[in-house]
Structures are given as C-alpha cells and as structure tokens.
Amino acid sequence: QVQLVESGGGLVQAGGSLRLSCASSGRTFSTYFMAWFRQAPGKEREFVAAISWDGRFTWSSDSVKGRFTISRDNAKNTMSLQMNALKPEDTAVYYCATGAAGSKLRMPQGYDYWGQGTQVTVSS
C-alpha cells in the first residue's frame, strides 16, 4: 500500500509563490514516476509536472513551464512543487501521484496512487 499526503496549499496573491510537498508512506517503488496534477471546478484534471524515478528528467505543461519546478528526494520519500509567479488561473486543487506512468506520464491513467489534494487559491 502506498499513501500520499500533500501539504503547502493556501491563499496567495497573484505573482506570489507557494511550495507544495508530497510525503509518501507504506510501500514505495523506487522506479515509479511522480507527478503533480490539478483540477479546477468544472474542469478536467490537468497535468502539471512529472519527474522520473531518479530525478534526472522532468516534464511540465506549457501553462506552468518556467514558473513551476518539480523535485524529489527519494531518501526522504518526498516530492515538491515550487510554484512562482502564480496566476489566478493556477487556482485549483493540486494532487500528487505516483505510478509506472511510462508513455502516459502526462495522463492521470499513468498513475496508480493519489493524494487527497491540497487547495491553491490565487487572488487577482
């Protein structure tokens, strides 16, 4: 069993920064990809960023590229998302996820385990 818990969400003004963290517990898989997704009310779940098992490779959506940075610390079983220059359109519930991903690293279907989500609200 793998459990993921997000933290760090909150309310921030446009242009501000937040750092989200995801802690894993239970059985972990060193070869699993980890990723962040977000979902705003009335919208589909959206890919944000992903990172390979060894942290060598990262992927980001066009909407956050250059503003968000994903990282992981396998020794601590944690993953982080540093969010800078936040915009109102970044407002959503952010979820961390882990799984085999493979060719589906930008799709929710590529991930087997999910956190409960943390709310990020960016005011204009």
Walk me through the structure.
There is one protein chain. By secondary structure, the chain is mainly β. The protein has no helices and eleven strands. The chain has strands at residues 2-7, 10-13, 18-26, 33-39, 46-51, 58-60, 68-73, 78-83, 92-99, 113-114, 118-123. The strands form two sheets. Strands 2, 4, 5, 6, 9, 10 and 11 form a seven-stranded mixed β-sheet that branches. Strands 1-3-8-7 form a four-stranded antiparallel β-sheet, with no helix packed on it. A hairpin with a 6-residue loop joins strand 5 and strand 6 (58-60). The radius of gyration is 13 Å and the shape is globular.
Approximately how much helix is present in the residues? under 10%
The major beta sheet can be summarized as:
7 strands, mixed
Strand percent estimate: over 45%
Terminal CA distance reads 40 Å
Summed over residues and divided by their number, the pLDDT gives a mean of 94
pLDDT < 50 stretches: none
- What general form does the structure show? globular
Round the Cα radius of gyration to an integer and report it. Answer: 13 Å
User: Count of helices?
Assistant: 0
Secondary structure: number of strands: 11
Structural class: mainly beta
H and E order: EEEEEEEEEEE
Multimerization status: single chain
Put the structure in a nutshell.
The protein is mainly β and 124 residues long. It has strands at residues 2-7, 10-13, 18-26, 33-39, 46-51, 58-60, 68-73, 78-83, 92-99, 113-114, 118-123.
Topology:
Blueprint: E1 2-7, E2 10-13, E3 18-26, E4 33-39, E5 46-51, E6 58-60, E7 68-73, E8 78-83, E9 92-99, E10 113-114, E11 118-123
Parallel strand pairs: 2-11
Antiparallel strand pairs: 1-3, 3-8, 4-5, 4-9, 5-6, 7-8, 9-10, 9-11
